[in-house]
Write a structure and sequence with these properties.
Shape of chain A: globular
Strand content of chain B: over 45%
CATH architecture of one domain in chain B: Sandwich
Organism (chain A): Microcella alkalica
Keywords (chain B): Membrane, Transmembrane, Transmembrane helix
Number of strands of chain A: 0
Radius of gyration of chain B: 35 Å
Oligomer: heterodimer
Keywords (chain A): Cell membrane, Membrane, Transmembrane, Transmembrane helix
Number of helices of chain A: 16
Largest interface: A-B, 34 and 32 residues
GO cellular component, one term (chain A): plasma membrane
Number of helices of chain B: 3
Structural class of chain A: mainly alpha
Protein name (chain B): SbsA Ig-like domain-containing protein
Largest sheet of chain A: none
């Protein structure tokens, strides 16, 4: 007979876990209330006609609500898949299928996202876990870069938004694969891979381990609350920013900017960097811009954003050194821009 | 066997010079690896910058590009106002119609909405024809370069849906392509089919109910699924009228006991007035909606009775009432009945829906629905002989396809022939029966006026009726499909009641 002892550390973990759960529950609740309020407000103002909100505010609500409504089902699907993979499917089997050849190994790792369909913020702890299990640091980068793009939820949402129009979906997938493997190859040449890492991993990631306690059902509920509380506010804020830009920035400016082969790409990359939207929903976010911006710029947004943005840099800084991140940013930025320019030329 | 690291350490301790050399070698290796990484990094950045500049230059020299195009190859042959939608890869400047060329020629208009260029066809296109649409001078705002968009598409080939009866009582609805051979494909088979009308993806079929009335069914041509549509008991369907677009059909209904059209005793004047509906009363049925029969009322509030009815392309319903007046009804607001004129005979509407082909005691007349102006239809000479006008089908271009009676120079008897008449004084012969022994039945132009199909009884004297109580036909009834422009006979099919569709 085995006896499980509850150590002080375990009790502390449980208390942390409960606090996290409560915080996420509140955040998720706020997110859901925000969405309902947004839709209710829109419904109310639609009936009130011209005497309601100003035109700009009505436009903002309409544009923002449309992004939320379009992307919400896919977010829920993404969360469900994420839970399925993280809780219900064993992790060990992934390690068995890796080839020995470095190129082949990196190529397979760049497809891990197909089985770990979470957005980029969820991939940072997973990438760190790969390093712990004996993966090289460049290999962890390959996973981190490719997984947010080469995963079924992102593919599904990108297809739902763009279909196969202008080769945006194909360019995004090929671009994600290419960037990940080029980065992996480049940093595999580094003589001191350990110097690529930051001194310590960030506190944000630690909670991931704490939540591994409890039954699978408890983990499922906990993960749902946690993922929802991260994604829902991001979705609402992203939708408001997307709507706000279209309302505030004159259409002539957008059209002129969007028609320029270079500035359209740079503008979209800058937008992706600033708004830091999740790769599972970024296709819906950028869809309204597709009519004014060149396809290459949309591709640059969809490739650059999931890898490099304010939120991701903050998260990656917990794992990689600043110097490494600068190099990564430069290479990813150039690759994304070239990809966008190529798409603009070809499509 | 190679030395272990501890052995290395011991050696380095005993020989400091060796240790320094090893350390120096290690540093050199590390520096070499560092340089290798730095070189690879710089080379990668340089290559990417170079590639970026190349593609930037190439992209700058380009104008907008055509991303995709949408056109309905079937509708474009059936309706005017159909659109070819050209999606550019970026917003484009406004365009005018002069930059659009279509081969073979077709009248178009053009508009721009952001990255979408809409080329609207102001006429119906020909069946089974490859069209090339070219839009020149497509530019983007704030960009100097322009480009030419070109899109090719092939319109759907024409086909005919028709009814073929069998002695056994099992009738077949068939679809036959204009270019095909044989009878065509059997779409539906059932006992005692009286009428059929295709609407959207289904065919509405009226069948004998075995008691002189009708059973109304909706047949899904793809799945074969049959759904019963509600009709009052003891009702017979005299006509089924389907629009070219939309889901609402019109029905002319009579009590099952009423005299059938063409039988002695008259039509609406039939004595039988009992039952759920008045003789030849008109009703609407929305197949895509609640499927409830909606009887129509005339100006006097009494049931609107009809000899015939035709849906106009714009959505209105033109009704030739039993008291020989022509009225227009809006199916969306059927309480509004607009009188148009009085004509003993109405043949139908022109393919563009702007004119009505009718006849009064003075002969044929073409009535302009927009202006109310009448134009007399005076048949031109046929092979030098004077012709007497019959049923006329009006094309959008003003050409008439008309049945006329001409005297046979040899026998002195009159023969009915089908002619194309542009009103210029000489008509072109399109069809006549062998040795003038036969007769020509209803004439139906294809929606784009390219073809005409006519029911032919090859030999009137030898004709034997199929004996059906509703829509009886000779057993030898045949459809002749003719190219209006060339007068060439394209196909013959054994059957009747043709409806134009696309393959």
């Amino acid at each position: 007979m085995t006896v499980r002892l509850e150590t002080p550390q375990r009790r502390e973990d449980h208390r942390d876990s409960r606090r996290w759960g409560a915080r996420h529950l509140v955040a998720a609740g706020l997110g859901i209330v925000g969405i309902i309020a947004l839709i209710a407000l829109r419904a109310t103002t639609a009936e009130s006609g011209p005497s309601g909100l100003p035109d700009a505010a009505q436009d903002l609500l309409t544009l923002s609500t449309s992004v939320v409504i379009e992307s919400l089902p896919f977010i829920v699907l993404g969360i469900a898949l994420s839970i399925l993979v993280q809780v219900w499917i064993p992790e060990a089997w992934m390690l068995r299928i890796l080839p020995m050849n470095p190129w082949g190994r990196r190529a397979v790792i760049s497809l891990f996202g197909m089985f770990l369909p979470v957005c980029e913020c969820g991939n940072v702890p997973l990438a760190r876990g790969l390093v712990r299990r004996g993966f090289t640091i460049p290999e962890s980068m390959v996973f981190l870069v490719a997984a947010p793009i080469l995963n079924p939820v992102t593919i599904l949402t990108t297809h739902a938004a763009f279909g196969f129009d202008d080769g945006i979906l194909v360019a995004r997938l090929l671009g994600g694969f290419l960037i990940a493997n080029v980065l992996g190859w480049l940093f595999s040449l580094h003589p001191e891979p350990e110097s690529l890492l930051a001194g310590r991993f960030a506190e944000e990631c630690r909670i991931d381990d704490g939540h591994r306690h409890g039954t699978r059902a408890e983990q499922t509920v906990d993960l749902f609350v946690r993922e929802s509380s991260i994604l829902m506010p991001a979705l609402v804020i992203g939708a408001l920013i997307a709507g706000g830009i279209q309302v505030i920035v004159p259409r002539d400016v957008l059209v002129a900017l969007g028609s320029d082969p270079l500035f359209s790409v740079l503008a979209m990359m800058a937008l992706a960097f600033v708004i830091s939207i999740c790769s599972n929903v970024d296709a819906f976010f950028i869809l309204p811009f597709a009519s004014t911006f060149l396809p290459g710029s949309i591709v640059a947004f969809l490739v650059f954003g999931p890898i490099i943005d304010i939120k991701m840099l903050a998260l990656m800084r917990t794992t990689y050194s600043t110097r490494t991140l600068l190099r990564v940013t430069l290479v990813v930025g150039l690759l994304s821009a070239v990809l966008g320019l190529v798409v603009n030329f070809v499509v | 066997m190679s030395p272990t690291s501890s052995e290395h350490t011991r050696v380095e301790e005993r020989f400091p010079g060796v240790a320094r050399a090893a350390d120096h070698g290690r540093r050199l290796r590390e520096e070499r690896d560092q340089r290798r990484f730095a070189r690879a990094f710089a080379a990668l950045v340089g290559i990417l910058v170079g590639l970026g500049l190349i593609f930037l230059a190439l992209g700058t020299l380009q104008g907008p590009k055509l991303s995709s195009a949408q056109v309905d190859p079937a509708r474009v042959t059936e309706q005017t106002g159909q659109q070819l939608r050209l999606f550019a890869n970026q917003p484009v400047d406004a365009l005018d119609a002069s930059v659009v060329t279509v081969e073979p020629a077709a009248t178009t208009s053009v508009s721009v909405q952001g990255e979408l260029i809409v080329v609207q066809f102001e006429e119906r296109l020909r069946y089974g024809t490859e069209y090339t649409v070219r839009v020149e001078g497509v530019g983007a705002p704030s960009r100097p370069n322009t480009s030419t968009f070109e899109h090719r598409f092939t319109t759907s080939p024409a086909s005919v849906l028709y009814l073929d009866r069998d002695d056994s009582g099992v009738d077949e609805i068939l679809r036959a392509d204009i270019d095909g051979a044989g009878r065509g494909e059997v779409v539906h088979a059932a006992q005692g089919i009286q009428h059929m009308a295709p609407i959207e993806r289904v065919i509405v079929v009226a069948r004998d109910d075995g008691a002189g009335g009708s059973v109304l069914e909706s047949v899904d041509a793809r799945s074969g699924r049959i759904e019963r549509l509600a009709l009052p008991d003891g009702v017979r369907v005299d006509r089924l009228i389907a629009p070219r677009a939309g889901t609402t059909i019109a029905l002319v209904l009579s009590p099952a006991s009423a005299a059938v059209e063409g039988e002695s005793g008259g039509e609406a004047s039939a004595a039988a007035t009992e039952g759920a509906v008045a003789p030849r009363s008109l009703a609407l049925l929305d197949i895509g909606g609640d499927r409830a029969l909606q009887p129509l009322a005339g100006l006097d509030g009494e049931p609107l009775t009809a000899l015939g009815a035709w849906f106009l392309p714009a959505g209105g319903l033109l009704v030739h009432t039993v008291d020989e007046t022509l009225v227009q009804v809006d199916p969306a607001a059927p309480e509004t009945v607009l009188p148009i004129g009085a004509y003993p005979t109405v043949h139908g509407i022109s393919s563009d829906g702007t004119r009505v082909s009718a006849a009064d005691s003075f002969g044929g007349v073409a009535l302009d629905l927009a202006t109310g102006e009448e134009e007399r239809i005076n048949p031109s000479l046929v092979e030098g002989e004077v012709a007497f006008g019959g049923e006329a089908a009006l094309t959008a271009s003003g050409l008439r396809v008309q049945k006329v009676a001409v005297a046979d120079a040899a026998t002195g008897a009159f023969a009915t022939v089908l002619v194309a008449d542009d009103g210029g004084g000489v008509a072109r012969l399109l069809a006549r029966t062998i040795e003038n022994r036969g007769s020509l039945g209803p004439v139906l132009l294809s929606p784009n006026d390219q073809y005409v199909v006519v029911e032919v009884t090859p030999d009137v004297e030898a004709a034997v009726s199929d004996g059906r109580p509703i829509e009886a036909r000779p057993t030898s009834i045949t459809l002749a499909i003719i190219d209006v422009e060339s007068g060439r006979l394209l196909r013959t099919l054994e059957g009747f009641a043709p409806v134009w569709t696309t393959g």
